[in-house]
Amino acid sequence: MVWFSNKSLSLADQHIPVGPDNVLPSSVVRDLGVFFDSELTMKSHISRITSACFYQLRRLRAVRAQLGQEVTGRLVWPFILSRLDYCNAILALAPLQRVMHAAARVVYDLKPYDHVTPTLKALHWLPVKHRIEFKLCLLVHLVINGRAPVYLQNHLTTTAFMSGRASNRSVSNNDIVKQSTRLKLRDRAFSAAGP
After folding, report:
1. Which residues are bridge partners to 17 per DSSP?
2. Residue 42 in contact with residue 91, Cβ under 8 Å?
3. What are the pLDDT digits (tens) for 62-92?
4. From the CA atom positions of the chain, what is the Rg in Å?
5. In which domain, by residue range, is 185 found?
6. Does residue 51 sit in the same domain as residue 35?
7. Is the same domain home to 8 and 58?
8. Global pTM?
9. Do residues 179 and 161 share a domain?
10. pLDDT tens across 17-36, in order?
11. Do the Cβ atoms of 110 and 137 come closer than 8 Å?
């Protein structure tokens, strides 16, 4: 059981009896490799990702002279970029973009204050924000073409399946209906962000 709240637990809720044991609450829980804090700020998860990535970058920088640019670039993918891409749609982007800039500096052996944008273009690395948009577009494309898992297909509705829209031009375009949301957190859901 996970309980998210911006209010602290009362003394009665500090110990939850489960059989003969008492379960103590935790301020951070891990689910599928993502660390959620009690207020859903994702600060703990971002902190862990950035520290793990910078640790790997320090290790790569130490052997970069022996590896060369091409091998270093290939090693950055599994050690750094895969961590940035995993569940990045739920995260704040600025710390992850700093990790990507540091990874590009390691690959091209740049100094800390060298401009990194041309390097990112040379490596063909999309910024973190655009990587998220690319993944969303890919998932929507798979849903439209019927190649996505059923649980994703159930979250999107095309205009062809809406009553009263059978004669609209949007039916032939296979347009997707955008669901309106009132909360910023819900805007990140696939059903809202996908369309």
Report:
1. 22
2. yes
3. 999 999 999 998 999 888 888 887 876 566 5
4. 22
5. 133-193
6. no
7. no
8. 0.56
9. yes
10. 788 888 777 778 888 778 87
11. no
